[in-house]
Specification:
Protein name: Quercetin 2,3-dioxygenase
Oligomer: single chain
Pfam families: Cupin_2 (PF07883)
Organism: Streptomyces monticola
Length: about 180
């Protein structure tokens, strides 16, 4: 049996807001949002971990590179569980790297490093964890994208209007880098 909770983000969630409350979530039953061509599912966030880390999955079809961005105070982990994902990273000195990651591969992006990714195979999946002193950014996905209750990928990609990208940096530690060029492609 799965219990639903009301939170400040959603009228119904499988995730309790109380950090002292243990819980279990069946596969795919976390808080879901569509963003770009992807389905993001949050299983644990700042409310549950007292702002110390989040745990989420991103799954999607083969597609375009998501916009380059960085997190000033948040470290991010990419662990691939299905398909293939190309991770692009630029360190604080401007050195760029890219790596094709397949199931079982791991990528780490330290804070302040510009990064992006591209799903290289249909139905690829990333397990993500982010942590840092500024808290967590998991609610960014549904703020920039759209919260959904159904399972599955979006029928059409949800591409936010350019001005909407500027609305999320302060609260979610996400700074987009419009026009950023990847020299590694």
């Amino acid at each position: 049996m799965t219990i639903e909770y009301a939170t400040r983000y959603r009228s119904a969630s499988r995730i309790p807001a109380d950090p002292a409350k243990p819980y279990f979530i069946e596969k795919g039953e976390g808080d879901r949002a569509h963003l770009f061509g992807d389905l993001v599912t949050v299983y644990a966030g700042g409310e549950q971990t007292e702002g110390t880390f989040n745990f989420f999955t991103v799954e999607g079809p083969k597609g375009d590179v998501i916009p380059a961005h960085r997190h000033a105070d948040t470290h991010e982990v990419f662990y691939i569980t299905a398909g293939a994902v190309r991770l692009f990273v630029e360190d604080t000195e401007g050195e760029q790297q890219e790596k094709l990651l397949t199931p079982g591969d791991f990528g780490f992006v330290p804070k302040n490093c510009t990064h992006a990714y591209r799903m290289e195979r249909h139905h690829s999946q990333v397990v993500g964890v982010a942590a840092g002193p500024a808290g967590t950014f998991e609610r960014f996905f549904e703020t920039l994208g759209a919260p959904v209750t159904e399972l599955g990928l979006p029928r059409t990609p949800l591409i936010p209007a350019p001005e909407k990208f500027a609305t999320v940096p302060r609260e979610y530690d996400v700074e987009f880098k419009p026009g950023h060029q990847w020299r590694t492609r």
